[in-house]
Amino acid sequence: MASKDRILRLKEETRCNILDASLKIVKEGGWDALSMRKIADEIEYTAPIIYEYYSNKGAILLELTRKGFLLLSKKLEEAKAKHRLPAKQLEAMWLAYWDFAFAEKELYQVMYGVETTCCEMAKKLPESEMPMDLIWDVIVELMLPHVGTEEEVCIKYYTFWSVIHGLISINMVNRGNTDETNQEVLKTAITGIIRSIKG
After folding, report:
1. What is the pLDDT of residue 177?
2. Which residue positions does the secretion signal occupy (predicted)?
């Protein structure tokens, strides 16, 4: 039994090493630099061993996407937990979203297809819905005592996401604004949308 556990642990360790090596390659050379051969070289394994864990590069991108959504969801939950009022929770969550995008730039890029092609299968990942669900629930709470229709909540969520994801994408593709300007735009947008929700 102990050897079975050890084998499973080694397999999981190798799987993590493959993902870590993939991110390292991307951070150093961009998404175009990623290949199964480079991953194998990075972890000093043969390419066929990589294929035992991931059938192709798309499978690695999908797993990195899953990892990104799980990490983003954790950051949003942590930000929410620091506040009691829904308005403050929303502000903290969107600021955490912004921080995540730049702290984990490569994951964000593959999650949302910024400067890379995101994996089409990512849209089917249950984890891809987690960040939206967390924020959605706080928007609903902020709307109380008026219970918004699903369409109203959807409009508020996508207003937030469009502005914040748009600003992130602009800065990832062509960094034209100063950090001070970005923070001002970000906070003005968040505050304005929160105000519109509260009515």
Report:
1. 73
2. none
